[in-house]
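As the work plan foresaw, the team has encoded backbone shapes as discrete tokens. One protein thus recorded appears below exactly as we store it.

:::
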Amino acid sequence: MGGTVTAVSSNGEYSFTKPNRESITLLAGLGVEGDVHAGVTVKHRFRVAQDPTQPNLRQVHLIHEELFEEVAGNGFRVAAGELGENITTRGIDLLGLPTGALLRIGDDAVVEVTGLRNPCAQIDTFQKGLLKEVVGRGEDGRVVYKSGVMGVVKVGGVVRPGDPIAVELPDRPHRALERV
């Protein structure tokens, strides 16, 4: 199971969107070099307000490019980096991965998937009504979060558009992703 990096994005300032880059550097235990969310402890404002000593399980945000096509079918136009992700992918069912899956990206980088992105109301500020597109209900009535996954950097390295992504599943039993 594998896919491809289609875009990489980072921002050194708090902002909903992140500009695309030619490359990003992942730093083990920290996240994306120069990105506002990099660090050992939480950096997302709402989590810092709750407890600034929490470990940062959201060092890297990945979104599947296929989501942009899905929401385009309902009239929304979203491009890589606009939902704040660091790595945009194609060909991987990110939302179907179990907790602890390893993503081997490019030549060196390894990201461990920690959970689902918990989308915030800023998505509706970006485009009114988009939040309903990325948070829905499954056939069983449970809430479904579609706005990507979060991870921590296990092994650093440079990541570029076009890099391959290989998925390594953890030992069974697998744990379904939850919001982090």
